[in-house]
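#random but structural
TW: two for the price of one
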Amino acid sequence: MKLQRKISAALVAVLLLLTVSLGAEETPGASLAVPDNYKLRAKDSVQVIVFGEGDLSFAQAIDSDGKVMIPLAGPLRLEGLTLREAERALRETFINEQILVSPHISVRVTGYSPRQFYIFGEVTNPGVKDFPLDATSLDVLQALSLAGSFTDLARRGNVRVTRTQPDGSEENFTVDVDRLMRGRGETEVRIFPDDRIFVPTRFF
């Protein structure tokens, strides 16, 4: 009887260890709520869970080339894919590389790459502004609305935008926001991450 109790206790201990091990392997970190149409970007942090395969699960930031490094398989581009598309791409990679036969994979976002722009000058709420989650650019009027409203001294006909180009040079242009607000602007003006908007003071 004592021997049977010892064997039963040992079996219970083994089952508990297996349960804890599997739970640690498949329990995700803190994931963020992501719209179904959200497309992954460079510098997003993702967690890839390969259920039942803890050694193949990983958490990484997507590199500047839009890729992650998959254990045993090498780099895979995820930038521009939705989470479901990323899961399919990972699944196909594991199968094509003959690493797994029928993997079950979950991709989650644990951190977003920073996307911000800056508004200074004659607005009521100047400073650093975050892009909406699903936006890669904003109409200049939308961007300005995030800074509250113009002050009474704002020179709205000569709003300046500074944009840093990939080669490090700066592009500067002015926007007649008054004309845009009256629907007379000839073209739509877009604001992109890291753009700097300055609303100058109107002199009487």
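TW: number two ↓
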Amino acid sequence: MNTVGKTIAGDASQTNEQLLHALREDFDLAFSREPGGGNGQAENFLVLEIAGDAYALRVTQISGLFAGRSITPLPSSLPELIGLAGFRAQVTPVYDLASLLGYAQAKAPKWIAVLSHHTPVAVAFDEFLVHLSVTPEQITGSGLRPSQERTAGSHLHDAIQENGRIFPIIDLQTVLQEIQQRVDATRSIKER
């Protein structure tokens, strides 16, 4: 676990602003390192919690992490679409990650991850737990609990083993594909 992870876990009194600053620095530094592969180098992940289940996101699949951003509600036939938010002078649709994974929709998600994609899109979730830097040996193809398999199974392809805990990795590319399929289906219904 890197220094940000230790800071988050060890100092509950740290303010959100300090935490956000530390996360931004660590996030930015992650892009200066070579991505992990079969070469033994570490790969960076953000661990989050959805409905009591812990998951991981690959840092390479997101372009920003924000806390406490205002989301303007948007009427939509897509229940997963929470609304719109502005990030770096770009209006971005924000989807509820819990809903996309098959859970009940989150009440008021605090965290938003902007995805690395040519079209602006973001996902929102309740709890950010820690940043992990793991070696390829810590990534395995198994470890899902039955509740995770039932809900998010199609978006989970690997898992991280860290200190006796297992964090299934959400493949944000398949989440993006699902969003696109739902948007396309909504458009075709409206065109009829």
